Amino acid sequence: xxxxxxxxxxxxxxxxxxxxxxxxxxxxxxxxxxxxxxxxxxxxxxxxxxxxxxxxxxxxxxxxxxxxxxxxxxxxxxxxxxxxxxxxxxxxxxxxxxxxxxxxxxxxxxxxxxxxxxxxxxxxxxxxxxxxxxxxxxxxxxxxxxxxxxxxxxxxxxxxxxxxxxxxxxxxxxxxxxxxxxxxxxxxxxxxxxxxxxxxxxxxxxxxxxxxxxxxxxxxxxxxxxxxxxxxxxxxxxxxxxxxxxxxxxxx
Length: 252
What we know:
mainly alpha, 10 helices
């Protein structure tokens, strides 16, 4: 991917590096530079997020894998080591079982089984463990996004850079005071809409609506609700697409 050479460079990789290397580099760097960590750097973290997102999109477009990236399944990692580990655990289990059956604790085991059986029958089979969903996976708040776009249209119509900067600053302060998905969606939609309405070059703009400033602000706000960087990136992408769709219509 020659076109993505700069994105690879941001992650400290050579162009065309394997996707597993991209994932490792991203996780290492984002943890090191996250603004919530001591010595973090919001601008650097935003740059890392952007580079990773570009490489992920390019990978998905090429048909090499899902946009979420690919992780090698456990079964494919050092199969010989896993096989021997399974054999060792099996032998240990058999030995422990033989000791319990033949040893002095056999009566205790039998008594425990007799007491536990009625309880197990009452409870029925154990329900499967379900991993709680990350907050970023929740559906977008359409009303909040429409409100953010409407506010951006109103403020942009004034032509005042100060008014736009004040609006995004106030939204960010509100998010820090009482974090919520609705506020995240509304504030992110406002920022994305301003960038599009003003037809700004996100890479040359060095103000509060530059690519680094917007990405850093949105990511920091999302981190108040989630520590899953991939899920955060996905939600911000979905908000951006929703804003583009809203702005393509004459009215919200």
